[in-house]
Structure formats: C-alpha cells, structure tokens
Amino acid sequence: MQKKTVETSYTIYNFDELTVSYQNLINKAKEQVTKAYAPYSGFHVGAALELENGEVFAASNQENSAYPSGLCAERVAMFFANAQFPEVPVITIAIAAFTKGNFMLEPITPCGSCRQVLLETEMRFEKDINILLYGTQSIFLIKNVKQLLPLCFEKSSLQG
Ligand code: THU
After folding, report:
1. With bands split at pLDDT 50, 70 and 90, how would you rate the model's confidence at 129?
2. For ligand 1, what atom is nearest to the CA of residue 108?
3. pTM of this prediction?
C-alpha cells in the first residue's frame, strides 16, 4: 500500500495589495453581478477574464426554471471567450459573488463543472490561468486551474 497526498496552494491578499490590472479585473467581475439572471437562487455571480491579447470578457450566471439548464458565470464567460478567440489563451479569471445584499465576506470557489471547463482551456493553450477569487475580507489568488482540480480527467486520459 502507498499513501499519497495532493496539496493545493493559494495566496491571500487584500485588495490594495493587488496589481492594478488584477484590481481592474476584479472590479469588472463585481460589476457583472448586477447583470446575473438568478431569480431562483438569489445568488449573483460575476466572472471576468483576460486574454493574452488584452481582450476582457465578463459574464454572469444565467439560471433557468428547469434548474440544471442554467449555467455558472465562469462557464458563460469562458465559452464565450473561447468562441470569440479560439487561438488566444486566457491568462486570468476573476470571480465575485453577491447575495442577500452583500458581496461574500470570504470568496466562493468555482464548482466542479466549472473547474473542469477552466482546466480544458488551461490545457488547450498550455498556459496557466491565474484565478482571483474575490471576498470583501480576503482575495485568493490561485496560480492555475490544476491547483483546483488535482487528479483530473483530461485529454491525455482518453489515450488509454
Ligand atoms: N454559481 C456560479 O455562477 N458560479 C459559481 O462558482 C458557483 C455557483 C451560480 C450557479 C447558480 O446560478 C447559483 O450560483 C447558485 O448555485
């Protein structure tokens, strides 16, 4: 028998400690929560991502009366960016969530399905995607999606 441990590392910042470009991306994610369509959960999420060519795409979660048909903000943003610029890597994504009249004190982290979708883009372009998770009290910076999804299923898994 062999025991293995997988570690995830991330850094915690205050808003003021971040670079201006990270601050701008977080502000875009925060703006997006106002555009969420979340009548069922009341949980408003904004995601903003930056491409290597400087383009920025931002989106919000889009819910549906048939609940599973809705989509998280991260996937709306990522699929749209990849559809518009299929040749350009994504370098950073910022995520903010707002509920019951306030932004979250501590950041939320992307759901499992979003992690899988973000990972595909990271692998596809062989370029780390920095993840900024916004909370009013702390901001997490994770250096790539692999940190969020260790032991993942990926393209090479299909090779057998
Ligand atoms: N949601 C996101 O948009 N992103 C996340 O990271 C977590 C959850 C959405 C899905 C649903 O519309 C609502 O938040 C509650 O789960």
Report:
1. very high
2. 6
3. 0.96
Tokens (6 digits) for 2: 């062999």
| pLDDT class of 120 with cuts at 50, 70, 90 | very high
User: Active-site residue 50, yes or no?
Assistant: no
Percent pLDDT > 70 in the chain is 100
22 CB contacts (<8 Å, ≥6 apart)?
92, 94, 132, 141
DSSP conformation class of 100: T
What's domain 11-149's architecture? 3-Layer(aba) Sandwich (3.40)
User: CA–CA separation, 47 vs 55, rounded Å?
Assistant: 14
Domain ranges of the chain: 11-149
Mutate which of 32, 72, 99 for ligand 1 pocket (most atoms within 8 A of beta carbon): 72
